[in-house]
Write a structure and sequence with these properties.
single chain; 4 helices; about 90% helix; about 0% strand
Length: about 90
């Protein structure tokens, strides 16, 4: 049940990230303008499926490793430092 809730959270984050301006939103708008609503919907569903598959696989790999929690905290800290570096 815990993994299912994690997958759902990642799915929601991907859904929220899908409305942030970027290449995916540009592709959807371009598809809607050139091919209509159906084309835009196809692009959106394919992107949603791809993000979901990637998230599920990444989660499965992470949980199958059975690494100590300390390493995940170190990785999180390194990621936060890198994101801060990118923001400056």
């Amino acid at each position: 049940m815990y993994i299912l809730s994690q997958v759902f959270e990642i799915f929601l984050l991907g859904l929220i990230a899908g409305v942030i301006p970027g290449p995916m939103l540009t592709a959807v708008f371009t598809g809607v303008i050139t091919g209509g609503f159906k084309t835009g919907l196809k692009i959106t569903l394919k992107a949603l499926a791809a993000e979901t598959i990637i998230a599920v696989v990444a989660l499965a790999v992470i949980f199958s490793l059975e690494v100590d929690q300390v390493y995940f905290k170190i990785l999180s800290l390194a990621g936060a430092i890198f994101l801060t570096y990118l923001a400056t």
